[in-house]
Amino acid sequence: MTAIEGTDLGYEYPDGTVGLDGVDVTVDRGERVALLGANGAGKSTLLQVLGGLVDPDDGTRRYFGEAVAPEAVRERVSVLTQDPADYLFNPTVREDMAYGPAQLDVPVAEADARVDRLAARLDLTDLLEKPPFRLSGGEQRRAALASALTVEPDVLLLDEPVSNVDAANRTAVLELLAELHDRGVALVVSTPDTELLPHVADRVYLLNRDGTVAASGPTREILTDCQLLADCGLAAPQVVELFDRAGHERVPLTVAEAVERLE
Ligand SMILES: Nc1ncnc2c1ncn2[C@@H]1O[C@H](COP(=O)(O)OP(=O)(O)O)[C@@H](O)[C@H]1O
Ligand SMILES: [Mg+2]
User: Would strands 18-28 and 77-80 be described as parallel, antiparallel, or unpaired?
Assistant: First the structure.
């Protein structure tokens, strides 16, 4: 069953820049999908259109099989933009995290329980009573992610969730995404990083640099097509290049897979 279905999506910025042009995207329930593309390809635009933060100029969106406005599925579709300030505007982190549930009339006791649970999960417990602007950049990103999750969405769209994030925080975010996936939450991750891709997506939409889709398919298919990636301003993961150049038949996508092959 589909969670989000965008058909022939088009978007033009006020200055005439084409953000999206004729894009078709489907995300099934519980699926892990990536929007892959170079800087400026249109990933953020597409993510915000799919997530309902921005209305397209052309095309249609359907949510959970129905042609409803994004407002109708606000409690089921959550978006994490790249700017933590989009989520952090209350006097304390706790209030920011409780904001979404309050908007959706979730009972206070239930909202509090969600806040405490997610804070513990994302190492935010000691920061809950702090003003969000006093947090470090990495802490703000974790707090923003926590705030996007307290509504307990069925679909979570994340815009470059681990760009400029240190290794420890990256691992924490990836573990949380794996946990959400296990619980059946559909994930849509935008990234220009082909190394990250095997860890966050089973299927990929690869964008050209002009807001159109160059190709879509299983992660393995896209990541082992070095020419296609190069045409889109990207490079294959290093292990792919290594095994490809060394003439191996079955090319691994990750270091862990490469180790298996070599053993
Ligand atoms: N507010 C804006 N006004 C005009 N052009 C914009 C604006 N935001 C983004 N763009 C342009 O739209 C295109 C797609 O941008 P974006 O979706 O942010 O790409 P990505 O997230 O893949 O880096 C780029 O050419 C970018 O310069
Ligand atoms: Mg972007």
Answer: unpaired
pLDDT tens-digit series, residues 88-112: 999 999 999 999 999 999 999 999 9
Residue found by looking up tokens 């700017």 in the block: 83
CB distance 81 to ligand 1 below 6 Å: no
Q: Check residue 13 and give its pLDDT.
A: 97
φ and ψ at 199, to 5 degrees? -85, -15
| Contact assessment for residue 146 and residue 138, using Cβ atoms and an 8 Å cutoff | no
Confidence (pTM): 0.95
41 lines ligand 1 (CB under 6 A): yes
Could you tell me the distance, in angstroms and rounded to a whole number, from the CA of residue 1 to the centre of ligand 2? 28
Quote the CA–CA distance of 37 and 53 in Å, as a whole number: 20
Ligand 1, atom 1, lies closest to the CA of 13
Least confident range of 46-60, 135-149, 183-197, 210-224 = 135-149
Q: What are 71-93's pLDDT values in tens digits? A: 999 989 999 999 999 999 999 99
For residue 40, give the ligand nearest its CA.
1
Topology (CATH level 3) of domain 2-76+154-217: Rossmann fold (3.40.50)
Q: Where does residue 62 rank: exposed (0-12), middle (13-18), buried (19+ CB within 10 A)? A: middle
Q: Which two tokens stand for residue 203?
A: 């299927």
- Ligand 1 atom closest to the Cα of residue 42 is 17
Where along the chain do the CATH 3.40.50.300 domains lie? Answer: 2-76+154-217
Task: Tell me the CA–centroid distance for residue 159 and ligand 2, in Å.
Answer: 7
Q: Three-state SS for 210?
A: coil
